[in-house]
Amino acid sequence: MPASPLDSAMFRELFGDAEAGRLFTDTAEVRAMLLVEGALAKAQGGLGVIPEVSAAFLHRACHEVQIDPAGLAAQTGNDAVCVPALVAATRKALEAPEHAQYLHWGATSQDIMDTALILRLRQALAICEARLVVTVTALGQLAQAHAGTPMTGRTYGQAATPTSFGAVVASWGMPLIRHLERLNELRPRLLTVSLSGAAGTLGAMGEKGPEVRAELARLLGLADPGASWHATRDGIAECAGWLAGVSATLGKLGEDLVTLTQSGIEEIALPTGGGSSTMPQKVNPVAPSLLVALARQAVGLNANVQGAAVHQAQRDATAWLVEWMSLPQLVLGTARGLAVALALAEGIAPRTDRMLETLEGGLGLIHAEALSFLLAREMPRPEAQAAVKALAKEARATGTPLAELAAQRWPGTDWAAALAPEAQLGQAPAEARAFAAMAAALPRPS
């Protein structure tokens, strides 16, 4: 097993996400950092912090220069940050020392790396948002189509009372709608530039520092935080929490699908399945299992990022390094989970025959609660519960269906109709249709 299965040549089709993965390569990071350096020079040139002619040269050159990330490895291994090596390599490549001297003027490594990270997180979150919307749309259509399709509701792994498949689908989709709402709320807090200088004071830029930061934000399409966030990582931590929350919701979807495709239940058909090396009959629920695994992995990665939010003093290299090792994996795992969930949402199909068979099996004991409430109209509730509990025991002992025993004990009522699954769905169909309406009304990402 490779150290990072997310970009493994062998495991990339299982764990990897090519679209999001392109944002977290060495090349992507170098390009993003050079974009920040070029925008910083342009902002400083326009405000007279550095010569305007040098600013124009640097802005253009940072878009054109090619820096090999591998060439930065030795110095990065020594410095722990890659920006000193990048700045040195870029100055050398430009072959214009009179202009190159102004590259990275008054900034610090964390300014460049954090802002470059935010640029890539912006794109990654856009990918996640687009997949979320399409997934919710597909789930909404499924919920609408099966709002009144009865199935067994389960608690503690046991049959409880009837529900509808549409309501189950809504339970998968409603949290995803809330995650979309949370994403819109966190974006303004997260998508900000970092420009604070060595100890967060912007001292090297003098009085022009705040103006430079505001102009840098404008040029990059980000917000100006108005202060340093070198050691205040609440925005990053909030983003990590959001990613972990999405993964957890997808993990719930995965867990339910593993259960519903289980041998002996088989109430859901998956669009695809995995094979076994030795058992020809196996069609394993690989995609749902992957969602569960990614959700559990996200818990640990998120814990690392939350712990890394405890920064020491004005800058903390130790906490920052933990963030580097955890956040990209969390982003890519969540993106992969969303791609898997989207394929499932568009391809899963309920096996209504099996759902009905399960409901009709078990001697009809799934209707015990409904029977007790119907009887409670004629007798005190405790007596009704005791009577039904005794009847359930008799059903198990004699193999007689609950509705048949009820007809013998309390004749004159069509208990078969009263205890039909369709009569016991409660608010399940309404919840399914309400979710479907919300899903259909979602705005599409631009």
How many strand units?
4
- Count of structural domains: 3
Q: What proportion of the residues form beta strands (DSSP E)?
A: under 5%
Question: Which structural class fits the helix and strand makeup?
Answer: mainly alpha
Topology as a string of helices (H) and strands (E) = HHHHHHHHEEHHHEHHEHHHHHH
Structure explained in plain terms:
It is a single chain. With about 450 residues, the chain is mainly alpha-helical. The protein has three domains: about 130 residues, Fumarase C, Chain A, domain 2; about 240 residues, Fumarase/aspartase (Central domain) (Fumarase C, Chain A, domain 2), CATH 1.20.200; about 50 residues. The chain is built from 19 helices and four strands. The protein has a two-stranded antiparallel sheet with strand order 1-2. The chain has a two-stranded antiparallel ribbon with strand order 3-4. Strand 1 and strand 2 form a beta hairpin. Helix 8 crosses helix 19 and helix 11 runs parallel beside helix 13. It is elongated and about 100 Å long. InterPro entries: AdenyloSucc_lyase_C (IPR019468), Fumarate_lyase_CS (IPR020557), Fumarate_lyase_fam (IPR000362), Fumarate_lyase_N (IPR022761), L-Aspartase-like (IPR008948). Keywords: Lyase. Belongs to the class-II fumarase/aspartase family.
List keywords for this structure.
mainly alpha; 446 residues; 3 domains; Fumarase C, Chain A, domain 2; Fumarate_lyase_fam; lyase activity; two-stranded antiparallel sheet; single chain; Adenylosuccinate lyase family protein; elongated; lyase; 63% helix
